[in-house]
Design brief:
The structure is a single chain. This protein is of the alpha/beta class. It has twelve helices and twelve strands. The protein has helices at residues 20-27, 42-45, 62-66, 86-91, 104-119, 122-130, 155-166, 190-196, 216-220, 239-247, 267-270, 286-304; strands at 11-14, 31-34, 51-54, 73-76, 95-98, 147-151, 170-174, 186-187, 199-202, 226-230, 251-256, 275-277. The radius of gyration is 21 Å and the shape is elongated.
Amino acid sequence: MSDNSEGQPGRVVVADALDESAVALLRSHFEVVDVSKDPAKLGEAVATARALLVRSRTKVDAALFEKAPVLEVVGRAGVGVDNIDVLTAHRKGVIVVNAPGAAATSAAELTVGLLIAVARDFGSHIPALKQGQWTKGMNGFELHGRTAGIVGYGRIGREVGKRFRALGMRVIAHDPFVQRTDDGTTLVSFDELLSMSDVISIHATFVNSSEHLFRAETLGKMRKGAVLLNLARGRFVHEGDLLAALESGHLGGAGLDVFEEEPSKNTKLLQHPHVVAVPHIGASTREAQERAGRTVVEDVIRVLKGESPEFPVHV
């Protein structure tokens, strides 16, 4: 842990907007410097900070760590920590904490919403109706009795599986870190999941080896007419190959909350009639943000009091 003898005891920097109740809890324990509305001040603010709290906007890279000599803990109010250089943090003795379960319900509900939107062709019907067109067609399909394959069976994946089963779907999953399930979900290999699923939903943790896991080769192994949902990280999917699979008719549709580049400029994919896309809002509910903020603040408080955090991020 870093030596904080030269810093101002208890100074905590908030770099991105957090839930107000979480910030209030922080203020009840420490001096809080909030630069969320003026990110240009971040470098100066972290010079004497014992803790730094971020969401997804702020990049906590090696250069920022160099500006924070007394930093003890970085808290990410969310799940993924790809905006934090965790290796550098650990090398400098800085603890990284996150809120892994905070958005599970919100993300799972959005997953179901995107799937229903694709299955019932909202991508075509809603824009047409807004333009005054009455386009009823027999191009939707029921989810009951279909097989849903989940890639990544952690907190969010399990919540998604629960909801898929409630729709009458058979649920299978692939996760190399999960050895068994107690909810009736069958674990299969990745190739088995590709060939068996009518719907594939991605909820895995991203690592560099996962980049373009869904590319021409793997998309080609999916069932004809299958639907792909991505609510994890955009880099799991090669967007050019996904568009080609949709345009050829091999895939029946896609529901996307994340993209290779954000904000996405891939207008061909976004405007495809069988794509329903939203701008990375999986965790954007009041409840999820309140849980994420409070979870990470409580862990930051634990660390600064010399206690062990509940949700440390390991290398």
